[in-house]
Amino acid sequence: MVSIKRMFASLSLAAVSALPGFAQAAQGWPERPVTVVIAYPAGGAADVVTRIVLNELAKSLKQPFIAESKPGANSNIAAEWVARAKPDGYTLLVTSPWFAINQYVETGRRWEPGSLTPVARFALTDNLLVVPASAPYDNLAGYVAAARSRANPPLQYGSPGAGSTQRMAAELFLSQAGINAESVQYKGAPPIIPDLVSGRVSMAVLASANVTALIQSGKLKGLATFGEKRGPNTPTIPTMAEQGYPKAVVTSWFGLHAPAGTPAEIIRRLSDSIREIVSRPEIQASLRTADAQAAFLNTQDFDKYIQREQELWKDVAENLKGKK
């Protein structure tokens, strides 16, 4: 239920947006640099993929779009920062599945999904289930059989964070396969890699950008992708659906959100510009180089997509209660 406080805040923002001066400012936007907050450290997958789009937005809209990393607290620091920003189009947030997940796994948040409004989705990246090269199985069925034979104590898998997309994807798969594995928590994906390569953990679900090169070099085996189809850079790795798990579809998406109350004209201009940018063959090629795929959704479709994501992760979070 929407709180009275939030309802009045939304009404106040709507009233402000209707003022003539506010409308004129929206028509002239952007007249100065735009800050785009990323909830992950510089150099990571989200940062690399986002900068490809931001560089082109700066050219299209003739103002700098400046990426600013604000990592920490499972993306809640970045979300709160933007949710509290003035809704004038000069502060935006890069969102990914954590936006749909955090409300079910995080307490003490000082922002809500309703305090931010969707702009557009611009890209997707695959999540891969990977195992050590030394593992005695070469497919998902082999891993499931091994997990069932090691029920007590269970196999361990590497998790890049309690509320991360990859941890949630792993638990979604384990639930659908009817097997148990114990999560070992790491601070992000990079620390998992050495333990995974050496066999200290039995598997991990990680973004393709983190593991594609290791699979190609023979240091890891890729058993499945959580994508709707095989990844363009990993065409030999079958999907979860191909191996009997049609509901285990988890893509790491990237989109933009703005503070609630941002004028609709600004949202429309941003969405239209992003659509044109990601339709270009050269941008699609740049995204593929970063292990991502162009995947545009306009404001309305992006909103519907997030609602479906929230339904999925609410169920997964319920199954996670009682686990570490």
What do these coordinates show?
With 324 residues, the protein is an alpha/beta fold. Helix content is 44%, strand content 20%. The chain has helices at residues 4-17, 20-28, 45-61, 76-83, 98-105, 140-149, 165-177, 192-198, 208-216, 264-278, 281-289, 299-320; strands at residues 34-38, 65-69, 91-95, 116-125, 127-132, 155-159, 181-185, 203-207, 220-225, 252-259, 293-297. A 6-stranded mixed beta sheet has the order 2-1-3-10-4-11, with helices on both faces. A 5-stranded mixed beta sheet has the order 7-6-8-5-9, with helices on both faces. Helix 3 crosses helix 10 (264-278) and helix 7 packs across helix 12. InterPro entries: BUG, Bug_dom1. Residues 1-25 form the signal peptide. Belongs to the UPF0065 (bug) family. Pfam families: TctC. This is Tripartite tricarboxylate transporter substrate binding protein.
